Amino acid sequence: MDSLIRLLEVINKTLTRIAGYFATALLFGMLGVVIVHVFYRYILNDSFGWTEELSRTMMVWMAFLYFPTAHRYGMNVSLDIFVSAIQDHPIMRFVGLAIELSVFVMLCGAIWLGYGLMSRASSSFTLSLQLPLSYVYAIMPVGFSLVALVSFERLLRLIGNIVHPGRYRVNVFGSSTSAGG
Predict the structure, then answer these.
(1) pLDDT at position 178, please?
(2) 149, CA 20 to 30 Å: which among 30, 41, 99, 142?
């Protein structure tokens, strides 16, 4: 199990880093598109029809590409009052495992639904850019697959921590729950 976790860690670190670079590029691209849009609309009293659609698409892609990194480091929304009450309790390992398993199952369903949506949208096009909607929706199965891979690594770490407490580092609810660095 150690070698599988190490392999997944290397794969996930690499993929989340690459996704983060693309997401950052999209952020700066979106900023440029919005600046051009504002300049043309309010300075030149003219506007492009495609800028809003492009910036919205870039924002959605950016969010899906940053999502694996956020999940990898446990930067998800949590109920702090609940977390602080059981954080040091041994039951936390089981609660974290149950939650992560639920997340993984939902991600697998989201991959399937995203792929279906992408397939159904292949004959439709965006209004301004005339891109196939399947290009816009392609980020759903890609993004959810990246997060599912991260979730699978987290599941293995959580299972490992039940068998060998404190052996694997994993962030549950934004806090480190085991020994490693």
Answers:
(1) 42
(2) 30
